[in-house]
Amino acid sequence: MKDFNVGIIQLPATGDKEKNLNTMEEYVTRAKKEGAHVICLPEMWNCPYQNSYFTKFAEEDFGKTYKKMSQVAKENKVYLIGGSIPIKAGEKIYNRSYVFDKEGKEIYRYSKINLFDIEGYKESDTISGGKSLGVFETEYGIFGLAICFDLRFPELFQSFRDFGAEVIFVPSTFMKKTGEIHFHLLNRARAVDTQCYVVSPAISRDEDLSKNAYAHSLCVSPRGDILADLGQEKNLAVIKLEDEKVKREREKLPLEVSRQNRKLY
Predict the structure, then answer these.
(1) pLDDT per residue over 106-132, tens digit each?
(2) Which residues pair with 97 in a beta bridge?
(3) Do you know which SUPFAM superfamilies this protein is assigned to (predicted)?
(4) Which of 66, 67, 2, 88 is nearest to 37 (CA)?
């Protein structure tokens, strides 16, 4: 890994898609001016997190939002991890994230595997789950990418570590009820489990369609320190991620050595 500055963007998901796109562009530009090399957006940032809006706002692959993200990445010369947006594919809709390089070219995509199906709400009423998981590589290092509810499945994050990841991005939209109890806990746990930085941009809270959002976008160090918490409002932060902190944590606690030793018995 090479030291770099990560930009975390926390936006409200309003019922006006055009407004959401314009706000995204404004905040990516601001993060770039503050020195960000890699910028990540929240889950469903162009669409209120409600099943009715997933259907209403869903776009075809390579649609309007995709093109806007590509354009913004190219104009700002940054890697843009596009949070996630609802994408139509035939009869199905996916909760999908795209990653663009500094030229605006797509280099990776991930469709959320673990859908937010809980008592009282089912994301699967409108969204279909993805089937594949991996990492992507940039000049700054190897990165993992998960989405929100995936945080509750540590085996996914161990796969990222096995694939060589040093930073894991987790665009999210936790609700207040579960976020207050679990969001910090899960992000810190996954960082400690994998000895990776974990970067989780979230939707900001507002008084309209995002009033139940927990917000509190996080950046957590490989030893579990909270490096940034963006609170509840629309916000951004730029944080330096350091290679030495990943290396040092893995030297102090050589977890992979123990895993290899277990295989010998």
Answers:
(1) 999 999 999 999 988 999 999 999 999
(2) 110
(3) Carbon-nitrogen hydrolase
(4) 2
